[in-house]
Amino acid sequence: MLSRRKALCTALASAAAFAGISAANAAGEKPRQSGRNVGTDRDLRRSDRLLTDREALTVIRNVPHAVLSTADKDGIPYGVPVTPVYDDGKIYFHGAADEKGRKTVNMRQNKYVSLCYTAKDNIVQEEFAVNFVSVVVSGTVRAITDPKKKAELMYKIVHHHAPVKTDKQIEEYLRPEVNLITLWEVTPLKITGKSRNKKYYFDKLKD
Asked: Domains of the chain: which residue ranges?
């Protein structure tokens, strides 16, 4: 439980730090996996627990939920759970089309965001610890406005989380819904993964 709180705090702190980064500094920057935090520019304290690029991407693709951290124009952070999907180097999630929500207002004011994915295998009571894997993605966000692209990506999101549904069922579900939502695209600038006894998590994925 302590590890999950720590992961959430890391995500919130990362989003707040991004409030002070200019778009010029971020332009052209490619996603990178390292033990150094963008914005705060500090080394990961436990570099021995750093996940590889492939492991971090595996977590992103398999953990169904994440905490999205945004910050307003004054740098005040705000975290909410989302259900994102990774596709072709980008991360997508949706929200209500209402522009008044705090999350939406923050992203309109400040395009820098953070996503924190956390998965755990078990709580090790005798060691006062948790076996876990977590990934923090830091990047920029924008709304998808092209109707065709929005519909295609929403189909991928629904199919990813509800693979038992047929194409027809998904299309019928999305037809009235697609205009009621805003689809957001995150371009990762930095991906950092961390774990404790990661074999418990990755071995389970192989089963």
From this structure: 2-143+187-198
Name the residue with tokens 């200019």.
22
d(CA 121, CA 181): 34
Give pLDDT tens digits for 86-97.
Answer: 999 999 999 988
Alpha helices in 46-145, H assignment, sequence order: 53-62, 102-109
Neighbour tally for 53: CB within 10 Å: 13
Whether 82 and 65 have beta carbons less than 8 Å apart is answered as yes
Residues of the chain with pLDDT under 50: 1-30, 34-38
Whether CATH 2.30.110.10 fits 2-143+187-198: yes
- Helix 167-177 crosses helix 147-161 at what angle (to 10 degrees)? 130
What is the DSSP code string of 129-188? EEEEEEEEEEEEEEE---HHHHHHHHHHHHHHH-TTS-HHHHHHHHHHHGGGEEEEEEEE
Q: Classify 89 in phi/psi space as left (phi over 0), alpha (psi -120 to 50) or beta.
A: left
Chain centre to alpha carbon of residue 24: 23
Report the number of secondary-structure helices (H) and strands (E) in the chain. Answer: 7, 7
Q: Is 7 helix (H, G, I), strand (E, B) or coil?
A: helix
Distance CA 160, CA 163 (A): 6
Query: What pTM does this model have?
Result: 0.76
